[in-house]
């Protein structure tokens, strides 16, 4: 499916640049990007994407405008943002509520992607309780081109999405980092430590994705009674890993609410 009217991405940083590239590569729509950084603009142009240095230069009739700037940058330019009637405003900004977006555009959707959007493997949450089915389908199409999407019915749940998947890649990297440090302590070179850790996470994530078994069952499958894995997992249980993770997600959700407020 190709979206007839063009899509404008405002902000060509990590997320905006990556999402625009994925959508362009998938041929979903005519992609246009506002990139104020010269080097980023030229790099995107070289890939065949129409770019502007400022929002004022972009004048097409858009199917969708995507806000991929920081919340504080949005506050600075909100007054100059003009969204035509019928254009859907998609925001990936953390902590900017739908009510604020709707002051700019009545048709608005909030999306919480995560960092693997950089390689087209985002887990995105999307929220727009009043959005009609055709616009939802358009958002789903775009988010499935950069990974997977879960729709939630209220913004409170979007804080929970932030706590699990939005910030989740950060938790995973922290765990990987700790395992990498342990690997070095066991005498492995940095290259070998990185390889052992990265491929272990990749393999486990792919297996979990492809398996019909629960995560608990998968864990039990590698844990023979009295065996090596059980010895290691016993330390996690003793140190309260599950409780620690629960508290981390609560801290993230609570910070997300604070930023939105
Ligand atoms: N990174 C993540 O993992 C993640 C996850 C979920 C949600 N988000 C959200 O995604 C948004 C973008 O994050 P990011 O990591 O991609 O940030 P980023 O790399 O700093 O990208 C923001 C980009 O927007 C540009 N920009 C700002 N104001 C502009 C304007 N008026 N016109 C044109 N371009 C403008 C900035 O240009 P300059 O470089 O010139 O300032 C920068 O290139 C944030 O709101 C964040 O909350 C990020």
Please, could you describe this protein's structure?
This protein is α/β, with parallel strands linked by helices and 261 residues long. It folds into two domains: 7-156, Rossmann fold (3-Layer(aba) Sandwich); 168-260, ProC C-terminal domain-like fold (Orthogonal Bundle), CATH 1.10.3730.10. The protein contains eleven helices and eight strands. It has an eight-stranded mixed sheet, with helices on both faces. The longest helix has 21 residues, at 190-210. It is elongated, with a radius of gyration of 21 Å. The two termini are 38 Å apart. NADP nicotinamide-adenine-dinucleotide phosphate (NAP) binds next to helix 1 and helix 3.
E-strand count: 8
Strand arrangement, major sheet:
3-2-1-4-5-6-7-8
General form: elongated
Q: End-to-end distance, in Å?
A: 38 Å
CATH topology of the largest domain: Rossmann fold
The radius of gyration is: 21 Å
Bound molecules: NADP nicotinamide-adenine-dinucleotide phosphate
Low-confidence blocks of residues? none
Number of contiguous helices: 11
Specify the structural class.
alpha/beta
């Amino acid at each position: 499916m190709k979206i007839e009217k063009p899509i404008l991405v405002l902000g060509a940083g990590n997320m905006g640049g990556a999402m625009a590239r994925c959508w362009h590569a998938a041929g979903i729509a005519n992609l246009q990007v506002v990139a104020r950084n010269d080097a980023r603009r030229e790099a995107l142009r070289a890939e065949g994407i129409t770019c502007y240095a400022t929002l004022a230069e972009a004048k097409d009739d858009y199917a969708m405008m995507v806000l991929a700037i920081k919340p504080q940058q949005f506050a600075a330019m909100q007054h100059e943002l003009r969204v035509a009637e019928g254009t859907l405003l998609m925001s990936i900004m953390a902590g900017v509520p739908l009510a604020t977006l709707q002051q700019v555009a009545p048709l608005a959707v909030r999306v919480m992607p995560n960092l693997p959007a950089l390689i087209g493997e985002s887990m995105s949450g999307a929220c727009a309780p009043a959005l009609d089915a055709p616009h939802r389908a358009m958002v789903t199409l775009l988010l499935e081109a950069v990974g997977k999407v879960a729709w939630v019915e209220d913004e409170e749940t979007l804080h929970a999405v932030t706590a699990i998947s939005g910030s989740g890649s950060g938790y995973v990297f922290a765990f990987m980092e700790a395992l990498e440090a342990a690997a070095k302590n066991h005498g492995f070179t940095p290259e070998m430590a990185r390889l052992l850790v990265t491929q272990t996470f990749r393999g486990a994530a792919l297996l979990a994705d492809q398996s019909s078994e629960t995560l608990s069952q998968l864990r039990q499958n590698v844990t023979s009674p009295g065996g090596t894995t059980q010895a290691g997992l016993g330390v996690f249980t003793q140190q309260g890993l599950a409780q620690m993770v629960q508290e981390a997600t609560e801290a993230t959700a609570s910070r997300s609410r604070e930023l939105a407020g």
